[in-house]
Amino acid sequence: MSMNIEQVQAFLFREARLLDDKQWDDWLACYHPAAEFWMPSWDDDGELTRDPQSEISLIYYPNRGGLEDRVFRIKTERSAASTPEPRTGHNLHNIEIVSPQDGQVNGEEVQVRYNWQTLSYRYNTTDSYFGTTHVTLDLTSGQPLIKRKYIVLKNDYIHHVIDVYHL
Fold first, then answer.
1. How many domains does the chain contain in total?
2. In this structure, is the dihedral angle defined by the CA atoms of residues 136, 139, 141 and 143, taken in order, positive or negative?
3. What is the 3-state secondary structure (H, E, C) of 55-88?
4. CA-closest candidate to residue 147, choices 39, 70, 7, 36
């Protein structure tokens, strides 16, 4: 499959919109079945944890099954952290293809990096989250699928549980 930067951006903007619109099933369809979703935490020395198996992570799902379980809990109101559901607004920027370096995507995978900010409103309070995300897109199925999402939350001091829709 061949993709250009505009198509990559459109895919990522759509994924963010699906979160804002709470279109959970369509959002999950953006992910490869083997997709790893990882947001490491910051350690006491201001360094990101490196191993989700032996160190603390803010969120870690080794495959899409973990995301599916999370969405099930949100949709069935079995998540106290998501009831009532917050209203979110995602803003993505500085989207760039980092591999292949020439930006001409004709292979099986593409590595993308972007910055983001999400505003979240719940209980008469607006919270702001921001960070950098590294995404591996799998292009083998004829449509892009997220095969790996690595999220660095830059404001790691948070007042409550952070969830997939904040990122």
1. 1
2. positive
3. CCEEEEECCHHHHHHHHHHHHCCCCHHHCCCCEE
4. 36
Which structure tokens are listed for 114? 């972007």
The domain in which residue 154 lies consists of: 5-166
Q: Name the pLDDT band for 47 (thresholds 50, 70, 90).
A: very high
Q: What is the CATH number of the domain that holds 131?
A: 3.10.450.50
* 2 CB neighbour count, 10 Å cutoff: 9
Distance of alpha carbon 43 from alpha carbon 27, whole angstroms? 31
User: What are the residues whose beta carbons fall under 8 Å from the beta carbon of 1, sequence distance 6 or more?
Assistant: 105, 106, 139, 140, 142, 143, 144
What are the φ/ψ torsions at residue 40 (nearest 5 degrees)? -70, 165
Tokens describing residue 80: 């106290």
For residue range 98-124, list pLDDT tens digits in order.
987 655 566 789 999 999 999 999 889
The phi, psi pair for 31, rounded to 5°, reads: -110, 135
